[in-house]
Design goal:
It contains five helices and twelve strands. With 229 residues, it is of the alpha/beta class.
Length: 229
C-alpha cells in the first residue's frame, strides 16, 4: 500500500469518526474503529463497529469518486471515473462477511447486526441503492433503528469483548490480514466474495461446455466462479 493510499484510508476513517462524534451520543453508541478479529478463515478487518441497545452496526467505508452503478445482488459494481470504467466487489457482500464473522466472534444472533456501507468521497449514485448504502444521513439511519435488542449490561459486555478480543493495531496484524485475504482468494473451498462454500461444477453449454470450474454455493445471489487449474 502506498503512502498516498494509506493517507486516504486514514482520512476516510478520521472523517467517519468525526461524523460519529458530532451526531451520535457516546453514552448510547459505543464506537470501535479499525477492528481486526480472528475468524475461522483467518482474520476479518472491519472499518467501524458501533454497539448499542439497538443492535451492532458494522460499517464499511468507501472513498470513491465518479459515478457508481450497482444493486443489492450484483457481485460487482461499476465506477465510472474520467470516462473509464472500473469494476469493484459489491461492498454489501464484503460487509456481509464482516457481520457474519463478528456475530460468530461474539456468539450473537446475526440478525442483531446492522450492515451499513458509507460512501464519503465525491461520487454520485447512478442507480437506486439499498437503504443501507449511504452518502448522507449516516447518523439518521443509525438512529432510525429503535427496537431494543440488547440490555445495557449486554452492551457493556459486547464492548468489552471487542476491546479485549480484537487483534492489536500493528503491522503484524495488518500482514496477517493480507495473508488471510490471499489464502481466501486461492482457496478451492471458500468463496472470496461472500464466504460461502465453493463447489466443483461442469459447464453444460457454451464455448466452455465440459470444462470444470469452482462456483459459489450461494448462486444466484453470489455469482463468483473460477476455472479449475
Amino acid at each position: 500500500m502506498s503512502l498516498i493510499s494509506s493517507f486516504k484510508g486514514w482520512l476516510g476513517e478520521a472523517q467517519t469518526m468525526l461524523v460519529h462524534c458530532l451526531k451520535l451520543d457516546s453514552s448510547i453508541y459505543k464506537q470501535f474503529n479499525n477492528v481486526t478479529i480472528p475468524s475461522d478463515r483467518g482474520t476479518t478487518q472491519i472499518d467501524h463497529v458501533i454497539v448499542s441497545r439497538y443492535g451492532i452496526f458494522v460499517i464499511e467505508t468507501k472513498n470513491m469518486g465518479g459515478w457508481i452503478y450497482g444493486s443489492k445482488n450484483q457481485p460487482q459494481w461499476t465506477q465510472v471515473f474520467h470516462a473509464k470504467k472500473y469494476k469493484f466487489q459489491n461492498p454489501l457482500y464484503q460487509n456481509y462477511r464482516h457481520t457474519k464473522a463478528l456475530a460468530a466472534f461474539l456468539q450473537i444472533d446475526h440478525e442483531k447486526l446492522h450492515s451499513i456501507v458509507f460512501f464519503w468521497g465525491e461520487c454520485t449514485f447512478k442507480t437506486d441503492m439499498p437503504e443501507n448504502v449511504l452518502q448522507t444521513g449516516y447518523s439518521r439511519y443509525i438512529k432510525s433503528k429503535t427496537e431494543i435488542l440488547f440490555s445495557e449490561t449486554e452492551v457493556m459486555l459486547i464492548g468489552e469483548a471487542i476491546a479485549t478480543g480484537r487483534l492489536p493495531k500493528s503491522w503484524k496484524t495488518h500482514s496477517q490480514h493480507v495473508k488471510s485475504l490471499r489464502d481466501r482468494h486461492s482457496s478451492t473451498t471458500i468463496c472470496p466474495k461472500c464466504g460461502g462454500e465453493l463447489k466443483l461444477r461442469t459447464a453444460k453449454r457454451g464455448q466452455n461446455a465440459g470444462n470444470q470450474f469452482y462456483g459459489c454455493s450461494n448462486y444466484p445471489t453470489c455469482r463468483y466462479m473460477r476455472a479449475k487449474e
